[in-house]
Amino acid sequence: MFEKILFATTASPACDAGANVAFDLAKKYNSKLYVFHVLGMPSRGFGSLVVDSRTGEQENYDQDYIDWVKEEMKNTYSKQIADAKNVQIETCSGNPPREILRIARKEDIDLIVMGSHTRKEEIGASRYRNVAGNTMQNVAKAARCPVLIVNRPCTTCFWYFSNIIFGTDFSKASYSAFLFAYKTAKAIGCKLHIFHALDISSMYSGKVISQEEIEKQIKEARKKMEETYVSKMEDFDNYSLEVWEGVPYVEILKFSRAKSGDLVVLAHHTREIDPEEAILGSTVEQVVLRSTCPVASVNHPDKVEHM
Question: CB burial class (10 A; 0-12, 13-18, 19+) of residue 216?
Fold first, then answer.
């Protein structure tokens, strides 16, 4: 299912939850796993310094420093590496999201695994500000493959997933997310919950609407689910269709908790605009920051159509 997985890390404790998922996935699918760290931005001109992306300090960018960083990464993940078959440690200097995307294209990666933030102090700040890290946002925006974001320790693993939650707003981007959710559920043999949150707050700008109107729109959404998704699932019948009304990210999180969701799958953004120009949608950003299970952001059909 995933021949090549890229785990983007700073090898700091903030990336431990993502590391467990990345190594677990590579083991399950016998994948080649690239453990990748961007050293930092190099100085201009004839300078030989980089600003270490983990410590924020300037370091001499030479072969000794590169070897030291690789050795540190090996030591950090020594237990997982000892149990893995095909792991390659890579590092380079540069802008983190640009370099992560570059190696993903070069190696034809099928899945990127990363945290919502790369430094531990940013995690606490993010929960206060409710803002996801720039590296994650930029990678999720431009990646041609699904991006699996692990913000908290995963209580289960892909080996034993029971419930995958796919949240849709019926946008074009959501169909790529559906393909990833459906094919993953089918491969694992778990239940797929297709979920739509009827956003009555923004739709009517505070105007009170009748229950009849809400129920009419819920009925229409269920019909659209049948036509758009169920009709594409062939003989797969381990699914449910649910439509709740409210604030989308709140309802997705509530639904995921109610169903003991192991994975939430969403489109990177919801509006019909150029994916390269899209910022991280507010719904997926809030779900990423608050979800107790991993969240997959899917932005393009490239990798999911032929999974």
Answer: exposed
